[in-house]
Amino acid sequence: MFVLIWSALFVSVKGSIVWGQQHCVGGYCVTLSERQLTAEAGLCVVIPCSFTTADEFTPNHTIWYKCESPTKCGDKIIFHSNKTTDKKAQSGFEGRVSRLEPDVSQNNCSVIINDLKESDSGSYQLRVTGVQNGQQDAFTFIQIVTVSVKGMKQKPTVMIPTLTERRQATLTCTAPGLCSGSVPEITWTWRGAGGTESYITGNSTDFKTEKLTDVTQRHISTLTFKSSAEQHNTTVTCKIRFTDVKKVKITGVTSVREVTSDLQC
Hints:
The protein is mainly β. It contains no helices and 19 strands. It has strands at residues 2-8, 22-25, 28-32, 37-40, 45-47, 49-52, 57-66, 76-80, 97-99, 111-113, 122-132, 135-150, 157-159, 168-174, 185-191, 204-211, 217-226, 235-241, 250-257. It is elongated and about 80 Å long. The relative contact order is 0.25.
């Protein structure tokens, strides 16, 4: 029998993104998700956001803060669209946060936080800077969105065809869909009945990334080799590792197929 076991070091996003009601104060309005966003460490979360300002206010830049508490915001910058400002994002967030729409005049303030960590859990607040009556001005929206980052739950998907001796076969390992963060490292290992790892002659691997939506991707690795009777009871392991992920290992048996022979005795 040919047993396929996969083992993964990975996490995935499983967010609930729902547009909430519009909140307005003095002509300044913001629409955020009313519900808490849930994500998994190592991947990403999208905070959906749109805004409008008073007629005399022209927006130039958007700023996102991570609140120290639900009642204290405005100190810890995680994103600033003005790349020349002295007010930089905190080092822990620098390079991990980006806007979905670069043009602030489109009033889209949605952002993606990539390579999530459990410490990213918390509340986030938006501030818009611009010009009003010829003077520099800014407006901070009091509404916040809360993000909860948990450990990984999803597992990679492994597909195995019927294996026939002396014929080429391809195994496919697919990571869960994720945002435009770090590309994972996918590796294949083989282990025989004796517990020692071995190399199967003539095998080759290939890696590709498929774009699912504007903010999600799917990563796939394939292992191609020629089946042989020596591979009976061989364990195949697909390991997926993302950036900044705690060393968590998930193992499970996905499928069992018999290696048949086309040789005449």
